[in-house]
Design a protein that fits this description.
This is Aspartate/glutamate racemase family protein. This protein is of the alpha/beta class. 36% of the residues lie in helices and 15% in strands. It folds into 2 domains: 101 residues, 3-Layer(aba) Sandwich (Rossmann fold), CATH 3.40.50.1860; 113 residues, 3-Layer(aba) Sandwich (Rossmann fold), CATH 3.40.50. The chain contains 9 helices and 8 strands. The longest helix has 18 residues. The N and C termini lie far apart (47 Å).
Length: 237
């Protein structure tokens, strides 16, 4: 594998809803170059609820196209693609992170004794043990989903207009309920890549650190684009 700085490649689901700054699919969310490639037919329902079966080869092809365009690391626009993390990483040959949930083991190690991360997800019913196991995470991690008939689902699968206030209220409510049910939660990991615009509000409301696809993407890409440091020249005596 040749590791060179370039851009972060983002493999996108086949969606059309609005993606404001903070969303994985908005170039302004990132502090370095990014490139996008959409997988035709990769609907939210197919990836989230049907496991993305039959789409893995298409995701690999999209990843290879991004690499050919200079991308040195790859992520995806849906946390449920964690199911195929190993296949994607083996096929693409550059650092790949299919889901923000891959941060769970590291976050758990970073927390104090007795504390655990908790997950806010787009669809709790579909977030089974196999997804966590594919990330190397403990399947017993506490999880709370946004409501099936709520603002997130209306936006992503119902073609509703982007309602920042309603979306923020919904995800904060989910986070509060998660912590109320599991007082030992010491950090939040957002599975859904459309939730980072609300990470600051969640952190402020719960006084907890929040991890998401942006924190993962920054970590992953900077591994292939290390900073350059220049030693200051000593002044002549």
């Amino acid at each position: 594998m040749s590791v060179t700085s370039g851009a972060l490649g983002i493999i996108m689901l086949d969606t059309t809803f609005e993606r404001p700054p903070g969303d994985v699919g908005h170039a302004g969310s990132w502090r370095f170059p990014v490139k996008f490639r959409q997988v035709r037919g990769a609907s939210v329902s197919l990836v989230v609820r049907a496991g993305g079966e039959g789409l893995v080869d298409d995701f690999i092809a999209a990843g290879r196209e991004l690499i050919s365009e200079g991308c040195s690391a790859i992520i995806t626009s849906c946390g449920f693609m964690a199911r195929h993390q190993r296949k994607l990483a083996e096929a693409l040959g550059v650092p790949v992170a299919a889901s923000s949930l891959m941060q769970l083991p590291m976050v758990e190690m970073a927390l104090g004794a007795g504390l655990r991360p908790g997950v806010i997800t787009y669809d709790a019913a579909s977030l089974g043990p196999q997804v966590f196991e594919a990330c190397g995470a403990d399947p017993s991690v506490p999880v709370r989903g946004v409501p099936a008939g709520g603002a997130f689902h209306a936006l992503i699968e119902g073609s509703a207009a982007y309602d920042h206030k309603a979306l923020e209220a919904e995800v904060i409510d989910a986070a509060r309920k998660l912590v109320a049910e599991h007082p030992f939660v010491g950090a939040i990991v957002l599975e859904c890549t459309n939730m980072p615009p609300f990470a600051r509000a969640i952190s402020a409301a719960l006084d907890l650190p929040v991890f998401d696809i942006l924190t993962l993407g920054e970590w992953l890409f900077t591994s292939t684009s290390p900073r350059t440091f220049h030693r200051a020249e000593q002044s002549a005596l």
